[in-house]
Amino acid sequence: MDNMDHTHKLVIVVGSVREGRFGPVVASWVAGQARAHGGFDVDVVDLADFDVPQALPAESPKHAGDDYPRPAALAPLTSALAGADAFVVVTPEYNHSYPASLKAAIDWHFTQWTAKPVAFVSYGGAAGGRHAVLHLENVLTELHAVTVRDGLAFPNYPTAWRDGRPLDPDAPRYAEALLAQLAWWAAALRSARETTPYPG
Fold this sequence. Notes:
Rossmann fold, 200 residues, 6-stranded parallel beta sheet, alpha/beta, two-stranded antiparallel ribbon
């Protein structure tokens, strides 16, 4: 078996599209950690690169399947999500929750999240974005995704990062734990999806 048989497609989603956002810095560092891990083929998907409408069709993507009437401009995003074996969602915390841009991107899709693991990396003020993650766990569980227990949270991020890296010397170790769990779930769930249709 070559090495590609042991890697999983990891999509890192940059959830904020706000002007001056810090998300791309965090996502770039996480991507570096994931590439160093060696178990992932890493793709960073920045929602700022897509025009994600806030208004959705009346029909739920849960029932429409592949025929869901998404705008053509969303096709690359849909394809990236569909091809993923695992996700890392990078999110800030706005007013104790996550950005509307991220909710819209999630809501335009359904089966693309199903039976796949999702880990969270958050940043914010004193709470480090943890309130946003708590909300996202509920949303993605509803879409039959599997949320990974260990995440990364960066409180007071403007003073906790320098030159594109967190100042906390333990951050790489925490990232390693997150990625180890994500790789385990990615392997287990991909095997399950390939052998048995998910009963969703």
